[in-house]
Amino acid sequence: MSQQQVLELAKAMISTPETDKTAETLSNFLSGKNVNVEVANYRGKPVVLAFLGAEEAGEKVDVLMLGHTDVAPPGPEELWDSPPFSAEVEEGVPRGRGASDGKGPSASAAVALAELAEGANLGRSVALLALPDAENDYESLDAVKDLRAESAIVLEPTFTISAWSAPILCISQRGGMLIRIVLRGSPAHRALSWYGENPILRLGEVLNAVSELWPSHQYYPTKPGQAQEDLLTAFLLGAPTPTPIDIRTETAAQGTPTKAEITVYIPTTPNREAEELLNSLKSKVDETNTTIETVKTWKFLDGNPESWLVKALHRAIFEVSGQHPLYEWYPWPTAANRLIELGITKDFAIFGPGDFRLSHRPNEYVGVQDLAQAVEIYKRVLGG
Amino acid sequence: MYRQTVKTVAKSPVLEVRPARGTGITLNGIRASPENVVHNLFRVDMAWQGRRAYICEHPMSCLRMCGVHDAEVVGTRTEWDFTRPEDRSAYSLGLGPDAVLGPPDGTINGGMVDAILEAGIAKLDILKEETTVAEKVEVENPHGRITIEPAPEGTGLQIYLQFGPFSPIEAVLDVYRGLEPELRRRVANATTPYLKGFTEDAAYHTLGDLIGDIAGTGGIDNAYVKATVFGSIHALTITACRKAKIVKTK
């Protein structure tokens, strides 16, 4: 029953890139199952909020389940084996953008709520929140900032059933920082460039310095291409690798550039925080005509391994999958940062069907069995 | 024959092996046993009453390859290395780096075999009751296939290991002498397939893992073991040990 229901809902959600349509599909499904649903508006985008076991929206709930309805852009379509929003099911595996990162986990949570609303024992009050802007740092949480919850399950992909992987439960997540490095030059005609100073030529030096922030590990793969895909499961996160994500230049017609600007994302860990990394970078780069600044930081977050939520999730994962969960850090900052900043909750865990390694890549998928088992796990946690 | 322990404390860069009397092998205070295993895919982790030990197969293997039956293994690392998945897990659970018992280089040894041999092996005045399996145990899963068959006292573990496409390895683990020294050196210094992939060297590492799991964690002294491995050895060995009924050798 759960399996068919969650497959249908996940397919319907995956089959559109629009957050409006995804939110409508989700809210229609929940209201059709006697779950109270409100759809708030945040800057023209829908914020779906469903309640079960709570009398009204202002009441503090035991568990907040937080997912998202938006997805990363699919990228070049030719890299996909089937169109990214076709929601094709091959051998029981729905494929498409958001199957694992966003829509699959939210679909499992919604079906768990629906089944609990239809008569299964509900031991805890719960709110399900689906935001339209996970890929934009969850700003829409402002629309529900008065919401309060004892604990939150962040619905992100961690749980894949296969002989080659173990269920993962994340109660910590890596921090991160975005830094911008601006190199200024002096213009000249491009045919006589030696009369000027071309900042693009200094990018190599800067990128080398950036890559040295997390030096190569003696034993574990730290550089792209070093890790073998089939063995990567053992490392999951690999080493925190600084990643250039954007580069811009300012160049006048027929001139050499006057400015080169590069933005880099750097994961942070408890023993290497943002400030230390920034100072380290500054010490490696010649700062003449160069500005290095932090654009944004996300704190490393620690959950509480002794909380009832973590214990309940551990127990439910073991009962349903037959395996104890592996405790791993979530690779990037999730909604948990904003939930804590806004005082919505203090306690969190990250758990959902799918595989975070598939996020933002072509041919994203989620196993039907993973979706169905996640429904069962959520039901056991919420059933008390 | 008598149970054996280390004569004095053996120290490697990541752990200490302390003498013990008749207690079997404990890892960070956890009795080595298949029932205490909480993960057996990428490594063998054990947990009991809030304590936890990661990569237990490596110290177990070193001890049994040296013929040690009783020892207290205690992690001693103080620095985190968050590149390692087991360090991240330990940190999440509020533990210290000393919860991780395997060396960072992906070998079984990490200086441990040398440290144990340097400390010396001591015979205790406690008779060892040798064990075997009550009947043939067979496990087949996507990682391969393993059979463990009963064997009489004095057999030790007679192992036939086919790892991926590489030539089969045959070895005998004596209950008291452990593994023959040259083979022991090769096994102890072989690197895990999780770091280097499926190589011939990894086949020897897998033999060490098998010894750690079956003789160490499983507590099986005498048996004929045949394993064909395409993936994780621990997914085969620990499952087999859980399934096995262990009895005194006749």
Describe what this molecule looks like in 3D.
The complex is a heterodimer of chains A (384) and B (250). Chain A is elongated, with a radius of gyration of 23 Å. In chain A, a hairpin with a 2-residue loop joins β4 and β5. The mean pLDDT of chain A is 91. Chain A folds into two domains: 2-173 and 300-382, Zn peptidases (Aminopeptidase, 3-Layer(aba) Sandwich), CATH 3.40.630; 176-298, Alpha-Beta Plaits (2-Layer Sandwich), CATH 3.30.70. Chain A is an alpha/beta fold and 384 residues long. In chain A, the strands form four sheets. In chain A, strands 1-2-6-3-7-15 form a six-stranded mixed beta sheet. A four-stranded antiparallel beta sheet of chain A has the order 10-11-9-12, with helices on one face. Chain A contains eight helices and 15 strands. The model of chain B has no long low-confidence stretch (mean pLDDT 96). Chain B is globular, with a radius of gyration of 16 Å. By secondary structure, chain B is of the alpha+beta class. The longest helix of chain B is centred in the last third of the chain and has 18 residues, at 200-217. At the A-B interface, β8 and β14 of A face α2 and α5 of B.
Poorly predicted regions of chain B are none
Strand order of the largest sheet of chain A: 1-2-6-3-7-15
Structure summary, number of beta strands of chain B: 17
Tally of discrete structural domains of chain B: 2
Brief rundown of the structure:
Chain A is an alpha/beta fold and 384 residues long.
Can you tag this structure with a few keywords?
heterodimer; A: 384 residues; alpha/beta; Aminopeptidase; Alpha-Beta Plaits; 4-stranded antiparallel sheet; 8 helices; 15 strands; B: 250 residues; alpha+beta; Ribosomal Protein S5, domain 2; lpxc deacetylase, domain 1; 5-stranded mixed sheet; 30% strand
